[in-house]
Design a protein that fits this description.
Elements (H helix, E strand, L loop, with lengths): L1 H13 L3 H14 L7 H7 L35 H10 L19 H5 L11 H14 L2 H7 L3 H14 L3 H11 L8 H8 L4 H5 L2 H8 L2 E6 H14 L2 H10 E6 L6 H7 L42 H11 L25 H15 L12 E6 L6 E6 L5 E6 L4 E5 L5 E4 L2 H4 L9 H4 L1 E7 L1 E4 L6 E6 L5 E6 L3 E6 L4 E7 L5 E6 L5 E6 L3 E6 L7 E4 L5 E6 L5 E6 L3 E6 L5 E6 L5 E6 L5 E6 L3 E6 L4 E7 L5 E6 L5 E6 L3 E6 H5 L6 H6 L8 H4 E6 L7 E4 L5 E6 L4
Parallel strand pairs: 1-2, 3-31
Antiparallel strand pairs: 4-5, 5-6, 6-9, 7-8, 10-11, 11-12, 12-13, 14-15, 15-16, 16-17, 18-19, 19-20, 20-21, 22-23, 23-24, 24-25, 26-27, 27-28, 28-29, 30-31
Length: 712
């Protein structure tokens, strides 16, 4: 090793890194001849100095605070080349040499990423290290135990992967068998994937593990608990664990009381731990845009015969108490022109007028007045129903099927008709009052239209707000835009290379979003072939997508068990919500834009305050995946539909009242969820044997539900 040391010293001198050379000389003299294993001990007892001896001034100095903590925006690969040379040469003991690979974290090259596992720690001691830490944590005070227990899972995974990577297969197997039973129940699926990785070769192609390697697992721990852990690891000189903590974990330290087991359990469970507190600090304009004003013409059948202003006025008090669209500018709303929105056409104005009239007759829901539920059951759906949507005015329903067809039904007596052929259209008098009626071809009228074009199961469908267009997305990697005037495909949008799981139109039309197996969501405009924005950040499939009511934000749910909120304007991720224990399958914004409800395979509905970036409620009751969530038109009731064949109604007003969102809670994430699911549950409605895949409130607050009857 002396030769190596001399070589390193010469290299440092050639590179003009005098300071580093001095430090290394001092260390070597300090330890005399025994350079082999002991440098490692120095590395642990004073991590700020010896672990990274050769950081030139101004580079990566944050290591001084023990490597992690509030000031450590550390990149695992940030230490200079010289420091790596030193670590490679002088620390053959058990401090990790990074294998000389400088990797930019954003685009991980698999072999470079995995080479960080080139640790030559003694494989037989891994079980001892882990059980030593386990013993320490289990014997610590109750207040610290819950917080420190969060370390078990990420350390278990990294130590196992390290053993596998260094081809200690029997040790890895015994390590896995001994400790995998100690992990929290919500990591079972991940552990199943992990148990199949038993050879170095398996790790190369495995995306999940690559993610685990490249994204730091985030733990939120109070300063007291962190100091306790640090002291223990340094006393025990347990470098193997300390290195993993330094390299692969991001510890978000907060000042204040440690969190309780319940508080931690509510927030953890995602693929990469919790969200950093920084992630939810950005300002979000969650308010609604001002509605355009125009006069409402009086119809003959208005029995009351009010004055012209009467109509909207009549509706206003109804909506205002829940804080939905009002005439005043919402202080939390984005500027009206923050993103360009399409102009209102005459037909849109007519539709808004219709909407206001319907709203005037809307039923006011509440615990005493629950909605009627009308269930559309798809019978004999041998093609396998995979997606449903209903138009805003509840006149049409669409089903996407596993046989790659899209089927559109009219659910009113009015049949679906196509526009006449060009030759017939030229004969029409364009000036006549009923020209819109005359252009439709009566011969084509039918209750059902089938749209062919996809070459794989259709996983998502969405009607445009003006009911002229329909979107569908499929396993074939495309999103298609269909005309509901001609019932033909207008465009195929190609951008995703893998199945597209969901798509949705913006509430203002023109824009739409799609999310798929390639882990990104894309924002499109109907008249562009290429996406306008690509939202990248999820660690697994993007399973569902939703526009915020003001169209400035998009929420995406993913199989990585997190929900992200993206800013349409600049593509930034402005919120990360963790807490679900399974892939997310449904999202719903409250009509006033303040709250988000999410449902997942864990059978829980979680409620989020978007402005503060906090979880504010948990609704337990479903026993299977929740595929549908919808707020009533005024936001008083939340309906959830699940694979357990039930629709449940929850009291949304009560769930969101008296929220404790003070600065302390926001700063530390000490959330106290009331155990009041049973008080909030207003009703449970069973179907005979039909999983609920879609819910929709009509403009008068009748609840429509849909699903395919399954005979088993």
């Amino acid at each position: 090793d002396r030769q190596t040391l001399v070589a390193v010293l010469q290299f440092l001198r050639r590179s003009n890194l005098r300071e580093s050379e001095e430090i290394l000389r001092r260390e070597a003299r300090l330890l005399g001849d025994d350079l082999g294993g002991n440098v490692a001990t120095v590395a642990t007892s004073s991590p700020g100095v010896a672990a990274v001896p050769a950081v030139p001034p101004g580079k990566g100095g944050a290591r001084g605070n023990g490597g992690i903590g509030p000031s450590s925006r550390r990149d695992p690969w940030e230490c200079g080349a010289a420091s790596r040379a030193v670590r490679d040469a002088a620390t053959r003991g058990s401090v990790s040499g990074l294998g000389g690979a400088v990797v930019v974290e954003d685009q991980p090259d698999v072999s470079a990423v995995l080479s960080a596992y080139n640790q030559q720690g003694d494989p037989t001691l891994y079980e001892e290290y882990y059980s030593g830490l386990k013993h320490f944590i289990e014997c610590s005070l109750d207040c610290h135990r819950a917080e420190l227990s969060q370390l078990f899972y990420p350390l278990f995974v990294h130590m196992y992967l390290e053993l596998v990577y260094n081809q200690h297969e029997s040790e890895a197997k015994s390590f896995f068998e001994r400790f995998h039973g100690d992990q929290e129940c919500y990591y079972q699926d991940d552990l199943r994937v992990l148990s199949s990785l038993t050879k170095k070769e398996h790790m190369k192609g495995n995306e999940t593990m690559l993610d685990f390697r490249t994204s730091k697992f985030v733990l939120r721990i109070s300063r007291d608990s962190y100091q306790l852990l640090k002291r223990h690891l340094q006393e025990k000189q347990n470098n193997q664990i300390w290195n993993i903590v330094q390299e692969h974990l991001y510890i978000d330290i907060f000042d204040g009381m440690p969190r309780s087991k319940q508080q931690i359990d509510a927030m953890v469970g995602s693929l990469a731990g919790e969200a950093k507190r920084e992630a939810n600090k950005a300002k979000v304009f969650f308010g609604l845009l001002k509605e355009p004003e125009f006069d409402v013409p009086l119809d003959d059948e208005d029995e009351e015969g009010e004055n012209e202003e009467g109509k909207p006025k009549k509706k206003k008090p109804k909506k205002d108490n829940v804080g939905s669209k009002s005439k005043k500018q919402d202080p939390n709303a984005p500027p009206q022109n923050r993103i360009p929105l399409p102009e209102l056409k005459d037909s849109d104005k007519l539709d808004k007028v219709m909407n206001m009239k319907e709203a005037a007759r809307r039923v006011r829901l509440g615990p005493e007045c629950l909605p009627s539920i009308c269930f559309y059951t798809f019978l004999n759906a041998y093609q396998g129903l995979t997606a449903v949507d209903i138009t805003d005015d509840s006149s049409m329903i669409v089903g996407g099927f596993a046989d790659s067809t899209v089927r559109v039904w009219s659910v009113t007596p009015k049949k679906l008709r196509s526009v006449k052929t060009a030759a017939d259209l030229s004969l029409i008098d364009k000036e006549s009052d009923d020209v819109l009626e005359r252009i439709m071809d009566e011969k084509t009228a039918s209750e059902l239209k089938i749209l062919y074009g996809h070459s794989g199961p259709v996983y998502g469908t969405s009607f445009s707000p003006d009911r002229n267009y329909l979107l569908s997305c499929s396993e074939d990697g495309t999103v298609r835009l269909w005309s509901l005037q001609t019932f033909t495909c207008l465009v195929g949008y190609k951008g995703h290379n893998y199945p597209v799981w969901d798509t949705q139109f913006s509430p203002y039309g023109y824009y739409f979003v799609s999310g798929g197996h390639d882990r990104v969501a894309r924002l499109w405009a109907t008249d562009h072939y290429q996406p306008l924005r690509i939202f990248a950040g999820h660690l697994a499939d993007v399973t569902c997508t939703r526009f915020h009511p003001n169209s400035n934000y998009i929420a995406t749910g993913s199989a990585d068990r997190t929900i992200r909120l993206w800013d349409v304007l600049n593509g930034n991720c402005v919120r990360i919500f963790t807490g679900h224990k399974g892939p997310i399958h449904s999202l719903a914004f409250s009509p006033n834009g303040r709250f988000l409800a999410t449902g997942a395979t864990d059978g829980r509905v979680l409620l989020w305050d978007i402005g503060h970036g906090l979880m504010v409620g948990e609704l337990k009751g479903h026993t299977d995946t929740i595929y549908a969530l919808r707020f009533s038109r005024d936001g008083e009731i939340l309906a959830s539909g699940s694979m357990d064949n039930t629709v449940r109604l929850w009291d949304a007003v009560k769930a969101f009242e008296d929220l404790e969102t003070d600065d302390f809670t926001t700063a530390t994430g000490h959330i106290n969820l009331p155990e009041n699911s049973q008080d909030l549950l207003l009703g449970t409605y069973m179907t005979k044997s039909t999983p609920v895949v879609h819910l929709h409130f009509t403009r008068r607050n009748l609840l429509l539900a849909a699903g395919a009857y399954s005979s088993q």
